[in-house]
Structure formats: structure tokens, C-alpha cells
Amino acid sequence: MLGSGTEVGRIKGRSCTFPSKWSGRWFQSGVTQQIVIEGDRLSSKGKCLSSEGDKFLLVDEKKCYKCVVIHEKHINVLQYKETFCHTREALPNLCSLITGDALLYSMFRENASPVSCPLRGPFSFTYNRGHGECRNPVSSIESCTEESRLLWNFQACPDVYGSESTVEELECLATWKEGSQRYLVGRVHHNHAMSNEDRYRCFVYEKTNGINSHALVQDDDIEYNIAQSGDATCNGLSSATEGSRTMALKRVPSSWKCRFPSWMTFPGHWHTLDYSSTYSFHQKNNTLRITSSVGEFKVHCAHIRSSSITDTSVALVAHWQRHCVGVFICVAFYRRSAHVTEMQTGRGTNRAEDACSPANFNPSVLHYVTLVTSNPEAKDCPYSGKFTIAGLKIHQRNARSLEVPSIKNESVKNHHKHYNKKHKHSIRNDEDELLVTIERRKRKYQKFLEKIFAKETLKRERLQQKMSSKSNTTVSSQNITKHENTTFSNITKLAESQSRNYRNRRSSSNVDTSTCINSEFSTLDIGCNTHENMEFHSSCDNKEFITAYSCHGGWTDNGTSFLITTPLTRDSIGAKRYCFIYKESNDRTIHFTRTSENCDRNLWPGVDGALVFNVTSSGECVETSSAVVIGSGRPTLINYDSATLSDRMYCILAWTGSTVWRFNSSFKALLTKKIHGSVSG
Length: 681
What we know:
Distance between the termini: 96 Å
Strand order of the largest sheet: 1-2-3-4-5-6-7-8
Oligomer: single chain
Structural class: alpha+beta
Helix content: 10-25%
Shape: elongated
């Protein structure tokens, strides 16, 4: 045992260090300086000479020898007992001098990471500070956006001395169980907490119903007793009913009864157009969590204000909470498609009944926040055909904007003044576009494709000769199928290889893309290769470039139309979603504005925005070749044997060169048969 006579003789040559997980700065009530544990040092108590289990022999600069018994209650809480100062001669029996009733000291880690609180609101409670129980009006506990915080609302009782109306925020730092008692240590934040002596508190709590019973206890029936220490120690807490302040908690039903619309909650997760915020629905459709760069918000549906007959819009009062502070806000949702929704939010108020008043919620002046699901499905694009582009303007990069609504009661006028000023010249460069050089691909792989076709033709001729000399047609059919699969596999591997290595080819190309990025788009194809895609065509150094987008649905509001799109390929710095805002004039010209921020009503199509341009129709989606006819997205192939080698190459290059071409299994089978002449042209 540590402190025995044999141990004394070995102390001088032994090393002793404290556990590395204890390293750091600690607070202890009554100690003015921070306590630092590092290596073999425990601040002013000195250096560790020897240790065994939880017992440590220490000596300071004044040759004061102590035995300290340290217990780790939690990574953030250490408790210890110690002896008085002794000389070295007392070492053999030093640790035996610590008695069971010795004073217990508690050290709390400074800058500790918080933990989830063992209690989650809402609760109602009564409390007693030694002068009687304050029962009426009842006090309450609310949860915060962080699971490590609780908000305590104490009410003052006129007939109870010492009761007062105050709000305290508890940040949970540690929990542990000791025997039948459960302990909690936290920092209490309130107006009178000026130092760590005022902030750190220790609690003992116990559940009072359902104990020693196998009966199921409903959440609304849960009750607790809690005792709180009067200082920054855990001393004097012998039970959950004895302490400087005792409380009796009872779970109360949630006051949030309404549900968000099912067309919002069914997808579950939404993003703003610029991905600056994420919206997630939880807990039976009445809780929304919004995560953004400014923090996390928890939104509860308080009650439905109004809804449309077609169930495409709803206005409701929501309780908008950040940290432990919340306000009531009027919120309107507008369903634009199964994967696109817009939202408007008003000013925050302290009373739910005031949230949707005209002074706090005026839809005609409030901006819209565009929300898109994580994986929106492709939809048919508006219009169909080929268009000529004119009046193209590309402006400078803009900063990402729209944050979730502030819970501060700022005026709508000031908000829009700031918003309009911030977005006056907000534009994103066009450097995030997909640039596809078809001519370069044709030249690069022309010789390679010639070899493939020549090789496959020779194989086919030899196989036909071999088959004609055999009488077993079953085996011959199997050989045909095997050869067809091999041929198509070669072509497929080539296409997949080019798709995988496109970015590497782009960066290593002889074409200086930096000088071509801002070249003007000349034409626009909508719904030509597929009904769900838009393709912008431009040229630079005699090379053709295509920038493609997939459509996800749109809507019209007050004569202006909006379309949500996704670039089919983008750079790492490029936007993930775009909103095309467009309006058709009397002369059949369509004015476009593209933005990655939001479907902003303040942007005038063809005038304001990141990318603005006008288009006029130049014809339908028909483009004829001897090998391929492209119309409404359905290619028709001629017989392989009757096609020239250039026709065959054009067919395959159209396949491998297109950024938007997709084949299903039936079309692949048809292509294989046509290549081998199994199906007539």
C-alpha cells in the first residue's frame, strides 16, 4: 500500500505523472488562481513523487508533503481529499491520515465542452429556498436549440419570502451516478452571475414516479426532485430534497400542437438555392431545424393561420428559437413543385397573436427564400426548340446571401434596404460552367475509333465465315451474342472512360479555357436532346462549347416565371443550383436572368442579375445527319453495313461527346443489333 515503509525507500527514484486526460486548467471554489494539471505538476500543491491508484504523494517548494486522493467523476469534474502538510518522516503512514469525513473539494474544468442535459423540457416546477414553497404562479423549464442547455423561468410568489421572478440558463457540463444519487454539474448564466463562483453549480436529481414499479410511465407524467448547491461546490448535497434550493418538476404537454404541411415534411430535408442553409423536419412534423453559418434555429409550428383550397400554400405562426431565446414569427410556405418550395417570414414578436398582423407580416414587401430538396427529380423544361441569344451580360462574382430570418425585431423596411444594397451588383462569374469541346473530341479519337470499327468489322467477317462452316446453330447463336456483347462493351468502356476523364482533359487541353469562359453564348437548345435539359452553345478558337442544365420545375408569379435548374457538371467552386428568371415580351422575345442566390423578385429579367440575356426562337429541335436524326430526344440509326465510316463515327461521337446523353437497356440492345445489321435501318 502507498505510504508503507518499503515505499519510502523507492520514492526518490520513481517518476510520477498525472493522467494526460486531466491536463488543463481547472476551477476550484475559494482558490483565486487557476489550477493547472500538467505532467507531474498540480499547480501550487507541487510535484508528484509517487502514486498508486487514486492516491498521489506530492511535495511543494516549501517541502510540504501531502497525500491527495483524487477521484474522476467525469472528464470535466475531479474531486479530491487531502492531508495537511507533513514532513518527510510522516510519509510511511501519510495517506492513512485521510478520514472519511474529510472535506471534499471539487474541481471543474474551465472551457469544458458541454454535454447533453439529462432533463429535456418542457417542465413546470415549484421551488423552495428555505422560506416556503413557491407554488403559484408556477415556474417553467424550456429546452433550448442545444441539447446542452435548459432555460429556467422562476416566478415570484407574493406570499413566499425570497422568491423572485428571474430567468436562468443552465449549461450542462457533467453527469454521473454515485450510489443511488445522480449528479449534474453546470454553469448557470443569469444577470447576477459575475464570476465562476456565481456560475458553477452542482445538482442532485431523482425521478419520483415509476420507481420500483413495472408500470409504464407516460412522458407527460414524469416527475423529478432536484436539489441545487448554494456555491460552486457539491458539498451539502446529501439527497435530491436537501440543498440550498430544491425544486419539484413535472412534465407538461408540449404547447406546439399544429403540423407543418405534409408536402414540406415528406421530403424531410431541404436546402436554400445557394446551400447556405439546411432545413430539416423532425418529431411528428411539428419541429423544423434550420442550420446555417450563423447558427442553428429550432422552429415549432404554433398554429395554422390559413391555407389554400388547393393545398399549395399555408400561413402559420411559428415559434422561432435560437439558443434559449425565442420569438413568434408568421411564416408562409408556397409549394412550387414536389421538390421546390418558397417561404416568407415576418418580424419576430413576443406574442403569438401579433405575429401575422399587417405590421409584422406583409407578403407584398417580404422577400422569398427558395428551398429545394436534396435530390430533385428532372422535369420538362419550359418551351422547346432552338433559340438565338442576344444581349448577353456577365457581371462580377457576388457574395452568398440569404440567411435565415433574425429573431431580432428588426423592421421590414431596414431589412429590405440592407438586402437590396447588398445584392445590387451581386453576380457570380461564369467560370463554373460546363464547357464541352465536341470538335476537339472528334479529332482526338478519330483514329482510335477507326481502329475499333476496322477491328470489329474484321472480327464479324471471320465469325460469319466460321459460323457458315458449322452446323450447330445453337453454338453459333451463342457466339453471335458473345461478339455483340464484346463490341458494345468496347464502345461502352470508351464512353465511360471519356466521361470519367473529362475534367482532366479539360485542364490539360491546348485550348485556353480562361479566355473562352466569358465568350458569348450564341444559341440555346431547350428540350432537344432530352425534354429536361437546356443547352447553351458558344464558340471560341473555332471550338464549340456546350453548357447544359437540368430543369426541376418552375412557376409564374405576377407575370414573371421562375425555373430551378442544376448544372450537369460543375467546378468545385461552382453553384449547385440556379434560378432562371424569365419574362416574354410582346415581340416574342424572352428575357432571362440567371442567379445562384435566390429567385429574387427584385431582379428584372434581362436587366439585373449574374447572367442576363435575351432569346428569340430560331426553329424546332430538328438536326439532320446521314447517321443520326435528333428530334425530341429520340435518335434513329441507319443500318450499320450501309453507313459510311464517317457516319458510324458521327453516331458514336454523338454518344460519347454528349454531356446529357443517357441510354436505357432496351436502347443499348437496339444499338447493338443495328451495329451488327441484325435490324434493318
